[in-house]
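User: Sequence recovery, please. Input:
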């Protein structure tokens, strides 16, 4: 199971799913950004957020940056962290996420001006305190970094495991990083079998709303909220996206 991600390409992933010229506020991006906006604007102020398996992308934490004091961003691959680092350091060859920031500004009912855009980007850069390697197959996925008030994991677990038992185990490893009153935030591919990065197919363990709800319930979570969107594109190896939030029982 481990090792397939040696064939992952950070640049390929960005190109496949986030290239600017192919992107025009499609329904999928809107669904995801709306989900993160609703989740992070309604949860109330929290101190520490951990993004697990964050990949080379940052759009998932733009909204969070208005609600938490610090963000730890983790991924299995140094190459992915490198892409995020480039954006944080404003390198010339960093990926341009401006369209996503513009949409977040609209969701925050702010006027989209150059100044507002820069200020939103700075807000996120200020909040990301650490980039760290993680392994959700490990019972201690990021080493010793303490507990978090929010743990978010997007399109990660189902892309790493191949059985329901491993899914439960890895999710258990992830939520072990949540502290008291912790909030779990997840997006997942629905009914996935694979996803593509360049000419490489990555296998996906198929999950649906009932499955993920049962998993988080079994781990002792409550106030489980789930929403989903269907994607009608036969060429994709999945039929939609699921967004989930759940609270940890203390
Ligand atoms: C489909 S990508 C999702 C990236 C990003 N979270 C997003 O929403 O686009 C799956 C991610 O899982 C990461 N990954 C692979 N194996 C992992 C492991 N054992 N532990 C944690 N993350 C892993 C990969 O490096 C990759 O960034």
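Assistant: Recovered sequence (250 residues):
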């Amino acid at each position: 199971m481990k090792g397939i991600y040696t064939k992952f390409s950070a640049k390929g992933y960005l190109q496949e799913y986030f290239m600017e010229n192919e992107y025009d506020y499609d329904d999928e991006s809107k669904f995801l950004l709306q989900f993160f906006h609703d989740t992070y604007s309604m949860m109330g102020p929290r101190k520490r957020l951990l993004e697990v398996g964050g990949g080379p992308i940052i759009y998932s934490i733009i909204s969070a940056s208005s609600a938490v004091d610090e963000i730890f961003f983790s991924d299995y691959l140094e190459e992915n962290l490198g892409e995020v680092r480039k954006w944080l350091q404003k390198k010339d060859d960093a990926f341009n996420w401006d369209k996503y920031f513009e949409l977040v500004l609209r969701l925050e009912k702010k006027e989209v001006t150059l100044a507002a855009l820069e200020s939103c980007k700075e807000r996120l850069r200020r909040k990301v305190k650490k980039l760290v390697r993680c392994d959700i197959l490990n019972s201690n996925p990021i080493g010793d970094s303490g507990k978090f008030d929010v743990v978010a994991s997007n399109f990660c677990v189902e892309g790493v495991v191949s059985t329901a038992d491993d899914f439960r185990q890895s999710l258990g490893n992830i939520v072990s990083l949540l502290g008291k009153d912790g909030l779990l935030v997840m997006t997942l591919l629905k009914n996935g079998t694979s996803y593509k990065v360049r000419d490489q197919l990555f296998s996906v363990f198929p999950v649906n709303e009932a499955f993920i709800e049962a998993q988080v319930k079994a781990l002792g979570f409550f106030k489980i909220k789930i929403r989903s969107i269907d994607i009608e594109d036969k060429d994709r190896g999945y039929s939609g996206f699921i967004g989930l939030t759940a609270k940890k029982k203390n």
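The chain has seven helices and nine strands.
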